[in-house]
TrEMBL record:
Pfam entry (one): Abhydrolase_3
Family: Belongs to the 'GDXG' lipolytic enzyme family.
Keyword Lipid metabolism included in the entry's annotation: no
Protein name per UniProt: Alpha/beta hydrolase fold-3 domain-containing protein
Length: 326
């Protein structure tokens, strides 16, 4: 950093600070851990390059003792962080996905999409779509050959899962799958949305009583998405004029998870209600984490409620399979 008297022009608490000279100081989400074998869960992970230019990477996870048959579902995971912090290597995400793989017996691909402000939106969505195309390419014999996908994944059982901003990404990709031309050669069975990051200019629900956090979330979004539509850009508000119809979601099932103390909870509930009333033909479920705040399971993974969240998500991923889910 420069001198101590450098003027802060924008404080995106708790994520980053922007100084007058353009310097960005990231104050959270910058820690990283390497992939490898987790001795607690017996989950193995490694980093892979999805696209060299522009650079898109991912961290892939599998049970250490997986066999070559029957093949496992694939979860394509999108981390949170308001589109401007964190990565698949962030320790809290790494730990959370180790636990999910162990609980659900799935393969997970955690996407390293590029983040703002260096890469403003819609970069995160484009990178995440690139990751889905890369996964789908494994259906072709000689296009890509990531052995963990070729050997262990059933590409007719793919799920899109994310928390916060990552849940937002999962929603938009599920819409794009339906509309993609030529069609993406991938069967997405469902999307799991943990504390989804949707927003809007006009307040709803608890947003009326929490003006401080309302302004904070407004500020986050306006920073990462340079749009003249502000907090009513269809990327963040899926119910404004010009937003795609929810009937176009390219999956059969949706799980929405909200947290009681989360400023975003009423948007998640609203999404659930809208989906129930839409012409979408699938099945949607909702779960509420009582007494908890936004992405609490990422920061307190050993709590009983975090374990309950992971169990519910694992059950969602294993529906229709001949396995026991506690």
């Amino acid at each position: 950093m420069g001198s101590m008297d450098s003027e802060i022009v924008l404080d995106l608490f708790p994520w980053l600070k922007v100084y007058k000279d353009g310097t960005i100081e990231r104050t959270a989400g910058v820690e990283v851990v390497p992939p490898g074998l987790d001795p607690q869960t017996h989950v193995l992970s490694k980093d892979v390059v999805i696209a060299p230019e522009p650079h898109v990477s991912a961290r892939i996870y599998r049970p250490n003792f997986v066999t070559k048959g029957p093949k496992l579902p694939l979860v394509v995971y999108f981390h949170g962080g308001a589109f401007c912090v964190a990565s698949p290597a962030f320790p809290n995400y790494h730990t959370s996905l180790d636990k999910l793989v162990a609980e659900a017996d799935v393969i997970v691909l955690s996407v390293g999409y590029r983040i703002a402000p260096e890469y403003p939106l819609p970069t995160a969505y484009l990178d995440s779509w690139t990751a889905l195309q890369w996964v789908a390419s494994h259906k072709e014999e000689y296009v890509n050959n990531e052995t963990w996908i070729k050997d262990f994944v059933d590409l007719d059982r793919v799920y899109l899962v994310g928390d916060s901003a990552g849940a937002n990404i999962a929603h938009h990709l599920a819409l794009r799958i339906k509309d993609s031309d030529p069609g993406l050669n991938l069967k997405v069975l469902g999307i799991g949305m943990i504390h989804p990051y949707f927003w809007g200019t006009n307040r709803i629900g608890s947003e009326f009583a929490d003006g401080i956090r309302k302004e904070l979330v407004d500020k986050w979004w306006l920073y990462v998405c340079p749009s003249d539509k502000g907090c009513d850009d269809p990327l963040i508000n899926p119910f404004v004029d010009g937003s795609p119809d929810l009937a176009g979601l390219g999956c059969d099932r949706v799980l929405v998870i909200v947290a009681e103390k989360d400023i975003l909870k009423d948007r998640g509930r609203f999404y659930y209600d809208k989906l129930v009333k839409s012409e979408w033909k699938g099945k949607v479920e909702i779960m509420e984490n009582e007494g908890e705040d936004h992405v609490f399971h990422i920061f307190n993974p050993e709590s009983d409620k975090a374990k309950s969240l992971i169990n519910r998500l694992a059950a969602f991923l294993n529906q229709g399979m001949a396995v026991n889910v506690e």
